[in-house]
Amino acid sequence: MAKGKPSHAEAQLHLQLYDLRREAKLRAAREWFAEKFSPQNLDDANRLAPPGSQESAYMRMVVTYWEMVCQLFNQGLLNEELFFHTSGEFYMVWDRVQPIVAGLRERYRNPLFFAHLEKTAKRYQKWIERRAPGSLEAMRQLQQQARAAAAQTR
Questions:
Q1: Which of 15, 79, 84, 130 could form a disulfide with 6 if both were Cys (CB 3.0 to 4.6 A apart)?
Q2: Tell me, what's the pLDDT at 120?
Q3: Could you tell me the pLDDT band of residue 1, with boundaries at 50, 70 and 90?
Q4: What is the pLDDT, as a whole number, of residue 118?
Q5: Per-residue confidence (pLDDT) for residue 150, from 0 to 100
Q6: Most distant CA pair in the chain, distance
Q7: Assigned domain for 1 exists
Q8: Are the beta carbons of 67 and 114 closer than 8 angstroms?
Q9: Strands, E, within 10-154: which ranges?
Q10: For residue 76, what are the contacts with CB-CB under 8 A and spacing of at least 6?
């Protein structure tokens, strides 16, 4: 895995992936996802992002973007320190989809559904706890507060 000082190629790829996040439609999708998508189960996810809706397109755009980035990371194409220090959004995405992953894997009979996102999130948990013990728990509490606030506005 890419650890230590990032190579020029790793830094360049990292910047290219960041640049993709600035694309207008993906930016709108990311904003919607962060503000509105916090399902507790598959039925809830289908209510928040009904099949065929703009919200469903946004959800798929965000999750598949981060699944792709995490696959590049898991293949060793991105430097771990650089990625984890600058790309925390993937973890929020994982946190939001985690409650529905088992159901999606079962529904589509595909145990690999979001597997790279999950693997990267597990690596990040270990990485952040070594560097900032307790920060993950603080982040989880903030996410729970955000979910509660979102549930009140539904």
A1: 79
A2: 98
A3: very low
A4: 98
A5: 67
A6: 46
A7: no
A8: yes
A9: none
A10: 1, 2
Cα–Cα distance, 121 to 131 (Å, whole number) = 15
In a domain? residue 3: no
- pLDDT tens string 37-95: 999 999 999 999 999 999 999 999 999 999 999 999 999 999 999 999 999 999 999 99
pLDDT tens for each residue of 100-136: 999 999 999 999 999 999 999 999 999 999 999 999 9
Task: Give the torsion through C-alpha atoms of 28, 36, 62, 103, to 10 deg.
Answer: -160
Q: What is the DSSP letter of 6?
A: P
CB under 8 Å to 95, separation ≥6 — which residues? 121, 140, 143
Residue count of the chain: 154
**Torsion angle defined by CA atoms of residues 99, 104, 105 and 110, in that order, rounded to the nearest 10 degrees:** -150
Domain tally, the chain: 1
Identify whether 2 is part of a domain.
no
Q: What pLDDT was estimated at residue 2? A: 52
- The answer to whether residue 114 sits within a structural domain is yes
Angle between helices 24-36 and 54-74 (to 10 degrees): 100
> The tokens 């992953």 sit on which residue?
101
Kind and range of the H or E element at 77? Answer: none
Q: Which domain holds residue 76?
A: 8-152
Query: By C-alpha distance, which of 97, 102, 85 is closest to 3?
Result: 85
